Amino acid sequence: MSLINAKAVFTQLKNDLIGKDSYRGVTLTYAWLANQFGHFALGFIPAIVVYNLIREKPGIHYPELWAALGVWAVWILFELYNFLGPLVRLPSGKKELNNPDYSFPPAWANVAFDTVTDLFYFGIGALTASIVCCYSASVSQIIIGMIVLVTWPAYYWYTTKMYIQYAEYPFQLRLSQWKQPISETNKKAVLNYIKNEENGKHLLLFGSKGSGKTTLAVGLSTEISINRGCCSYITAVKLLSLFYERDEHPDVTFNMLWNWRKSSLLVIDDINPGNPIKGDILSTAIFYDILDNPVFGPDNIKHIREKNIVWVMGTEDPAVQLEENWQTLLQRIGISKENITTINLDNH
């Protein structure tokens, strides 16, 4: 379900371009625009400088082109190093689990697409400098063609930042940046959950303090956001208060395109703190009583049952049977056992 349409993009673009970031804060979309302007400038300014250094040199014809293409070539080599460096350093034949650099492999195709997009902006900047130094109709046509070609990547990356931005994650993290130990079984369960296209799939994520359960949940959800999923991050305490709110249909605003009910994936964090704190602070009984309140209970249960949810739990304590209690709660809501996956990060 996609809630980002042309109207939403235009509204976000207007919010990014009009107003001062000193009082409104810097959004991910604004940062992306600034980043691409920086790439343009890093092509444009050095090309101007190099042109002025070589234009009087004897035997150099079309110094504006040499300057532009030379600067662009330097940035191409730099970006190739950035992209290929991690690939070259990967130990050949090693399993990903034993690779100290990655618990989960990066999405190399996505990284390559990002690299190519950046190179287009470097090139547009450098070639624009060349026509400023010495106008050429043919170079102008090339620039126009490059701008046309980069239009769709620009739309893709800008809207991708919107998907991540409106999820309201507490920090930015891709799954490949999560570098905690994890078993092959749990790793496979995470990757299968990301690839899942069905609704009503629930992932119970257990782990003690420092095991990386919150960062794993954010990294997992970020990958789904990048794949155009409408995700939402929320703490358990905040969600409990929202169980008493109506199912509103939020208009496009600077802060929200969808609420937790409209999201395709919900990450519920801080349900219980985990080791060294023992016990079940937010019990299943309390959670269910608030969920099934007299006014909004049926609607709350419907959304919890039909939505994909990552439940970030505490340590699985056999003494209190935490995993069994929450599985029982989910089944009481109407979620079948085969739609519940459990991962314990303390078992690796």
Please summarize what this structure is.
By secondary structure, the chain is an alpha/beta fold.
Characterization of this structure:
The chain has a five-stranded parallel beta sheet, sandwiched between helices. The chain starts with 5 loop residues before the first helix and ends with a strand. The protein is built from twelve helices and five strands. It has 348 residues and is of the alpha/beta class. Helix 9 links the parallel strand 2 (231-235) and strand 3 (265-269). The chain folds into two domains: 6-165, no CATH class; 175-344, Rossmann fold.
List keywords for this structure.
single chain, alpha/beta, Rossmann fold, five-stranded parallel β-sheet, 12 helices, 7% strand, IstB-like ATP binding protein, transmembrane helix, membrane
Helix content: 40-55%
Give the C-level CATH assignment of the largest domain: Alpha Beta
Provide the low-confidence segments as ranges: 91-99, 250-254
Compressed to H and E, one letter per element, the order equals HHHHHHHEHEHEHHEHE
Name the CATH superfamily assignment of the largest domain.
Answer: P-loop containing nucleotide triphosphate hydrolases
What fold name goes in the CATH topology slot of the largest domain? Rossmann fold
Domain count: 2
Q: Strand portion, in percent?
A: 5-15%
C-alpha geometry: elongated
User: So what's the oligomer here?
Assistant: single chain
Class based on secondary structure composition and strand pairing: alpha/beta
Helix count from the secondary structure assignment: 12
The strand count comes to 5
Strand order of the largest sheet: 2-3-4-1-5
Distance linking N and C termini: 35 Å
What would you say the CATH architecture of the largest domain is?
Answer: 3-Layer(aba) Sandwich
Average pLDDT confidence is 87
User: Whole-number radius of gyration?
Assistant: 25 Å
Largest sheet: number of strands, sense, barrel closure: 5 strands, parallel
Transmembrane segments: 30-53, 65-84, 119-152
Organism: Pedobacter duraquae
Keywords: Membrane, Transmembrane, Transmembrane helix
Protein name: IstB-like ATP binding protein
